[in-house]
C-alpha cells in the first residue's frame, strides 16, 4: 500500500470455456489444477507440475539477466581507467552468467536453449496432449505480437510472461485498485517524495543537442526549453531517434537499424462497459455473482492450437482474424472502485488485427464496428447475451495505440520480442546498454533490455547506468 499502490490478486489464473460444455479453470491450487486438467487428460495433469517446475528454474535464471545491464561495447571516454572498469564489468557479468548456467545443469540448460529457439507449439507438444491445455498456455506466447505459435523463438515470449510475479508469487497477474493509472500515480508519489518535480501535459518537440554532440535538454511544443545534461527517454526508440533527434547526429548504420526495427502488432484493445457479469454457459460453479472464473484471465477462441494458428494466418493474409483470439479480463470483479454497483468493466485484448488491413480501413467507422461486433458475437457463443449487456465500448486498433499512446506500429512492447530483438539486440545491436550515440541521452523504456511488461526493469537498469556514468565524471 506504500504510495497508494494496492494490488488485487485474482482467485484463479486462467479460465478457458469450451463450446462443448466443458471448461478449464487453473490457478486455484495445485490439487484443483490436477482435477481440472484431468478432465481433458490424466497424463497432462501429471505432467503439468513438472512443466511448472522447469519453467520456475528457467525464470530464476532469467531473473539475473532481467536485472543486469548488458555487457555492451564501451562507447564513452576510452581512458585507461574507463577501459579497465569496462573489462571488469564484463568479466563480472559473464562469470555470473556462467555460475547461473552451471546451477541449471547441462540437461536443463539444453532444455532452456531449446525453449528459447523453438516455436511455442513444439514446446507445448513436447509436454502435453490436450489441445485445450496447450491453447490455454499458448496465449501468453502471442499476446501483443504478430507471430504464430508456429514461429521459431515464440517460446521465449511464453517464458517472458511467466516470469512476472506479485509479492514473490511467480506467474501471478494482479489487478491494480483504481486501474492501471494507479501505478503511474504511485510511482509519481514515490518520485516526489524523493525530490522529483513532475510536469505533465508538456509535449516534447525535439531534443536540444550542443555542437559537441552532447544533449542539453528538451524543447517543448510550446517553445519552452528545459535544460539538462542528462535526458532519459521512455518513448519508443523509433519515436526518439526518428522524430526527436536530428538525424545528422546519428551514425548511418544506427539510424538504419532503428528505422528497420520490427514494430508490428496484431493487438486491438477493446474496453467494454456492461450492465451485468457475463454468464458462461459451460460454467456451473454455483456463483450467481463474482466467481473465480470472472477474476481470471478468460481465454476466448482458444480451445485449440489450430484456432490460434488460423487467427494468425488471417492477419498474415492482411485481414483481421475471422475468429479472433481474445484475452478477456473483468477488473471490476475485484476492484469495486472502477464501476457502479451491478455494473462491470470488461477488458479485451484481441488478436490478430493488421495495422493496415487489406480489406478496409480502421478509419472507417463501419469497418471498426464490424470488427468489434465480430468479437462480441464470438463471446456470445460462450456467454449468451453478452452483446445485449453492453452499455458502451472504446476500441483501440494498432493505429489508435500509435496515435494516442505513442506506441510505434501499435506495438505494446515498444518493439517485437523475438530473439533477434532481445538482450544485445535491443533496441539495436551495439547500443543495448541504455546509452545512445548522443552523449547524455539514455533509453529507459520497453524498447530497451529486457523488453515489455509492467515491471520497470528497463527504467531501473537505465537509472543505474546513469548513476554509474555520473560518478565517473
Protein model, in words:
InterPro entries: FAD/NAD-bd_sf (IPR036188). The chain is an alpha+beta fold and 473 residues long. It has a domain at 27-168. 40% of the residues lie in helices and 14% in strands. The chain is built from 15 helices and 16 strands. It has helices at 30-38, 42-66, 80-104, 106-117, 120-127, 131-142, 154-162, 181-193, 237-244, 252-259, 292-295, 305-316, 365-382, 398-405, 457-472; strands at 7-8, 14-17, 23-26, 165-166, 169-170, 175-176, 204-209, 215-220, 225-226, 231-233, 267-274, 297-300, 325-329, 344-351, 390-396, 441-443. Strand 7 and strand 8 form a beta hairpin. The protein starts with 6 loop residues before the first strand and ends with a helix. The relative contact order is 0.15. The model has no long low-confidence stretch (mean pLDDT 92).
Tally of separate helices: 15
- Rounded to the nearest angstrom, the radius of gyration is 23 Å
Taken from the alpha-carbon principal axes, the silhouette is: globular
* Major sheet strand order: 3-2-12-13-14-11-15
Q: Count every beta strand, where a strand is a DSSP E run of 2 or more residues.
A: 16
Strand content: 5-15%
- Percent helix range: 25-40%
**If you average the pLDDT, what whole number results?**
92
Ends distance = 38 Å
Largest sheet: 7 strands, mixed
Low-confidence segments:
none
Amino acid at each position: 500500500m506504500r504510495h497508494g499502490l494496492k494490488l488485487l490478486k485474482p482467485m484463479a489464473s486462467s479460465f478457458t470455456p469450451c463450446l462443448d460444455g466443458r471448461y478449464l479453470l487453473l490457478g486455484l491450487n495445485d490439487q484443483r489444477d490436477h482435477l481440472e486438467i484431468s478432465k481433458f487428460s490424466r497424463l497432462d495433469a501429471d505432467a503439468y507440475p513438472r512443466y511448472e517446475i522447469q519453467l520456475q528454474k528457467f525464470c530464476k535464471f532469467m531473473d539475473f539477466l532481467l536485472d543486469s545491464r548488458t555487457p555492451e561495447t564501451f562507447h564513452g571516454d576510452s581512458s585507461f581507467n574507463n577501459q579497465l572498469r569496462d573489462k571488469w564489468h564484463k568479466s563480472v557479468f559473464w562469470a555470473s552468467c556462467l555460475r547461473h548456467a552451471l546451477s541449471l545443469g547441462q540437461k536443463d540448460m539444453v532444455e532452456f536453449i531449446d525453449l528459447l529457439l523453438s516455436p511455442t507449439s513444439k514446446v507445448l507438444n513436447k509436454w502435453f496432449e490436450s489441445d485445450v491445455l496447450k491453447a490455454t498456455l499458448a496465449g501468453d506466447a502471442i499476446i501483443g505480437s504478430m507471430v504464430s505459435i508456429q514461429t521459431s523463438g515464440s517460446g521465449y515470449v511464453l517464458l517472458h510472461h511467466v516470469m512476472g510475479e506479485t509479492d514473490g508469487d511467480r506467474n501471478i497477474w494482479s489487478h491494480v485498485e483504481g486501474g492501471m493509472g494507479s501505478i503511474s500515480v504511485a510511482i509519481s508519489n514515490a518520485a516526489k517524495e524523493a525530490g522529483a518535480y513532475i510536469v505533465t501535459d508538456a509535449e516534447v518537440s525535439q531534443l536540444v543537442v550542443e555542437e559537441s554532440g552532447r544533449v542539453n535538454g528538451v524543447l517543448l511544443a510550446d517553445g519552452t526549453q528545459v535544460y539538462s545534461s542528462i535526458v532519459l527517454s521512455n518513448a519508443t526508440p523509433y519515436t526518439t531517434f526518428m522524430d526527436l533527434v536530428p538525424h545528422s547526429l546519428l551514425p548511418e548504420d544506427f539510424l538504419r537499424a532503428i528505422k528497420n526495427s520490427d514494430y508490428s502488432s496484431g493487438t486491438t484493445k477493446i474496453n467494454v462497459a456492461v450492465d451485468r457479469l457475463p454468464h458462461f454457459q459451460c460454467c456451473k460453479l454455483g456463483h450467481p455473482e463474482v466467481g473465480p472464473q470472472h477474476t481470471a484471465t478468460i481465454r476466448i477462441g482458444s480451445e485449440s492450437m489450430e484456432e490460434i494458428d488460423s487467427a494468425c494466418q488471417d492477419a498474415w493474409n492482411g485481414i483481421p482474424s475471422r475468429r479472433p483470439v481474445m484475452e478477456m479480463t473483468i477488473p471490476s470483479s475485484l476492484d469495486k472502485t472502477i464501476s457502479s454497483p451491478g455494473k462491470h468493466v470488461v477488458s479485451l485484448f484481441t488478436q490478430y488485427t493488421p495495422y493496415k488491413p487489406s480489406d478496409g480501413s480502421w478509419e472507417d467507422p463501419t469497418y471498426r464496428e464490424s470488427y468489434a461486433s465480430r468479437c462480441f458475437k464470438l463471446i456470445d457463443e460462450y456467454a449468451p447475451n453478452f452483446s445485449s449487456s453492453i452499455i458502451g465500448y472504446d476500441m483501440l486498433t494498432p493505429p489508435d495505440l500509435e496515435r494516442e499512446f505513442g506506441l510505434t506500429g501499435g506495438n505494446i512492447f515498444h518493439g517485437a520480442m523475438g530473439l533477434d530483438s532481445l538482450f544485445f539486440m535491443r533496441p539495436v545491436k551495439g547500443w543495448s546498454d541504455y546509452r545512445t550515440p548522443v552523449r547524455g541521452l539514455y533509453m529507459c523504456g520497453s524498447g530497451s533490455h529486457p523488453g515489455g511488461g509492467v515491471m520497470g526493469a528497463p527504467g531501473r537498469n537505465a537509472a543505474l547506468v546513469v548513476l554509474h556514468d555520473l560518478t565517473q565524471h
